[in-house]
């Protein structure tokens, strides 16, 4: 369910990441090659990008399939950035159908996406609500499982946890309640944190120049590496670090 990608590197057009590669995210909306759950990602899409010196990214999100939006290719052709996060959506049953539920979610400098699902949502994870103060509950961006996961991650970030720890602790907490798929992707425009938990995640690094982290490779060039399941990735333009994630307590 869903495909997503994050890029850090030299300034390029959105299209060079999202549209032009032979197996781009644009194409993955109808023809993903390695998606384990679902076949078409046509329930919404979004892209967030950074335009320094402003640290707060811009976002463009819509319902429906990315190929049906006539503005996408125009934006992708002219908007330039050195950091982005984008996603195409295959919705979970019972989730909000509007663009508020389309990734990337955002707050301050952060962009976030969730590829996966929380089976039995919302009843299966109702206990997690106790982790959030009332004001955070009122700020949840959409009625869907991904928005709840984002609220849990953001709560940890605001409490001072570093990105990797915030993702890892959220995965452990959610997985203790339901057999969830939790591939999470987070960036502040300078670094990327991601988890592989139940679906595919790949990265491609050109040291000192650029790094791409994605649900699946968008081209067939050498250098793509698949993460093992149950892993945390931390990446910058200079390097990638991968560590195992802890299983939730029985």
Automatic annotation (TrEMBL):
Keywords per UniProt: Glutamine amidotransferase, Hydrolase
Which Gene3D superfamilies is this protein grouped with?
Glutamine Phosphoribosylpyrophosphate, subunit 1, domain 1
**Superkingdom of origin organism:** Bacteria
Q: Which SUPFAM superfamilies match?
A: N-terminal nucleophile aminohydrolases (Ntn hydrolases)
Q: Which reaction does it catalyse?
A: gamma-L-glutamyl-hercynylcysteine S-oxide + H2O = S-(hercyn-2-yl)-L-cysteine S-oxide + L-glutamate
Pfam families, alphabetized = GATase_4 (PF13230)
* InterPro entries reported in the protein's UniProt record: EgtC, EgtC-like, EgtC_Actinobacteria, Gamma-glu_amide_hydrolase, Ntn_hydrolases_N
Which pathway, metabolic or otherwise, does it act in? Amino-acid biosynthesis; ergothioneine biosynthesis
Record EC number = 3.5.1.118
Query: What GO annotations for molecular function exist for this entry?
Result: hydrolase activity, acting on carbon-nitrogen (but not peptide) bonds, in linear amides
Record GO biological process: ergothioneine biosynthetic process
* Job of this protein: Catalyzes the hydrolysis of the gamma-glutamyl amide bond of hercynyl-gamma-L-glutamyl-L-cysteine sulfoxide to produce hercynylcysteine sulfoxide, a step in the biosynthesis pathway of ergothioneine.
Family matches, as PANTHER family: GAMMA-GLUTAMYL-HERCYNYLCYSTEINE SULFOXIDE HYDROLASE, GLUTAMINE AMIDOTRANSFERASE DUG3-RELATED
- What is the name attached to this protein's record? Gamma-glutamyl-hercynylcysteine sulfoxide hydrolase
Organism this protein belongs to: Streptantibioticus cattleyicolor (strain ATCC 35852 / DSM 46488 / JCM 4925 / NBRC 14057 / NRRL 8057) (Streptomyces cattleya)
Q: What is the lineage of its organism?
A: Bacteria, Bacillati, Actinomycetota, Actinomycetes, Kitasatosporales
């Amino acid at each position: 369910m869903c495909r997503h990608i994050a890029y850090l590197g030299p300034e390029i057009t959105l299209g060079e990441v999202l549209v032009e590669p032979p197996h781009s995210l644009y194409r993955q909306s109808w023809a993903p090659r390695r998606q384990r759950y679902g076949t078409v990602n046509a329930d919404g899409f979004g892209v967030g990008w950074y335009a320094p010196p402003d640290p707060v990214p811009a976002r463009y999100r819509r319902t429906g399939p990315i190929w049906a939006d006539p503005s996408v290719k125009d934006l992708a052709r002219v908007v330039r950035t050195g950091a982005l996060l984008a996603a195409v959506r295959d919705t979970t049953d019972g989730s909000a159908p509007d663009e508020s539920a389309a990734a990337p979610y955002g707050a301050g400098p952060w962009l976030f996406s969730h590829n996966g699902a929380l089976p039995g949502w919302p009843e299966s994870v109702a206990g997690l609500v106790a982790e959030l103060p009332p004001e955070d509950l009122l700020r949840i961006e959409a009625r869907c499982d991904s928005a709840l996961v984002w609220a849990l991650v953001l709560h940890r970030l605001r409490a001072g946890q570093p990105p990797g720890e915030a993702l890892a602790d959220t995965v452990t907490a959610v997985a203790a309640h339901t057999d969830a798929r939790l591939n999470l992707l987070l960036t502040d425009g300078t670094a990327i944190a991601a988890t592989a938990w139940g679906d595919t995640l790949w990265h491609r690094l050109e040291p000192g120049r650029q790094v791409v982290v994605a649900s699946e490779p968008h081209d067939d060039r050498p250098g793509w590496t698949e993460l093992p399941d149950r892993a945390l990735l931390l990446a910058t333009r200079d390097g990638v670090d991968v560590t195992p994630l802890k299983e939730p307590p029985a």
